Amino acid sequence: MPRIAYVNGRYVNHSDAMVHVEDRGYQFADGVYEVCEVRHGLIVDLSRHLDRLNRSLGELRIAWPMSRAALIHVIRETLRRNHVRNGLFYLQVTRGVARRDHVFPAEGTPSSIVVTAKSTDPSVIAKKNANGIKAITVRDNRWDRVDIKSVGLLPNALARQQAKEAGAQEAIYIDHNSMVKEGAATNVWIVDTDGNLVTRPAEHGILRGITRTTLMDVAAKLEVTVVERFFSVEEMMAAREVFITAATSICFPVVAIDGQTIANGHPGSVSQKIREAFFDVAEKTAI
Ligand code: PDD
Fold this sequence. Notes:
Blueprint: E1 4-7, E2 10-13, H1 24-28, E3 31-39, E4 42-44, H2 46-60, H3 68-81, E5 87-94, E6 112-119, H4 122-131, E7 133-139, H5 154-165, E8 170-174, E9 180-183, E10 187-191, E11 197-199, H6 210-222, E12 226-228, H7 233-237, E13 241-246, E14 249-257, E15 260-261, H8 269-281, E16 284-286
Parallel strand pairs: 7-8, 7-14, 11-12
Antiparallel strand pairs: 1-2, 1-6, 3-4, 3-5, 4-16, 5-6, 8-9, 10-11, 10-13, 13-14, 14-15
Helix pairs in contact: 6-8
The structure holds N-(5'-phosphopyridoxyl)-D-alanine (PDD).
């Protein structure tokens, strides 16, 4: 079955899906994106993802490529055309096409929009949840606006590659005070010695993950206390549990970091409880 992508007004075969060589996303990473999970034919947390898209666009003064309602229609249609029941959609909006110049193009230059969708194998995710994943720590070398979900992901890609070469699946960013920030493409959580869920405050050099926000709703429902505070690498290494969250990896347990085993080396019960309750609590939108 051919994959279909939506590119600037047209649904095209994925293999023919092209953007212009002078698209500012291509030349300057001048764009933003969202990744959103689809489970059992339902889009997870669509409203929150579109609200964050709105914020990212606003921070960079990039115009919406179309109305929110039209974009929802395009997302659904792209998912339908790709027959996605379990998987994700990716959308990217850039400042559009213009002759290469660092300053913004002329007022009215249309933004570019691409939407793609793909199916994922739930058994691969289940295996990661059952076995846990490994991570490494790396010093954060990104710009200081990582609160914007920008497509400028070169440091993140390099960090993930470094993790892979070390036999791990995620790289965890550490700040200059040895405090934990977030993963290359995930937020980081620990269960501390009091049994509280702890994660770094979103105002301090991390992306405010949508999964992170919804997880707080889940924790409230399960009567698990969430504390937003700084925590050190040392505290993480000694935590009862460590796990990471992102739209495509809800609550992956981390069982080893920098070659050191976390707790007893097995996925913990708190992350499991949260993962199991997550889908019920999240907003679900039919395709
Ligand atoms: N990454 N922090 C970073 C740096 C991220 O790139 C992501 C998401 C998150 C988690 O955000 P959310 O819960 O909204 O997915 C945190 C996506 C999945 C990606 O780049 O593929």
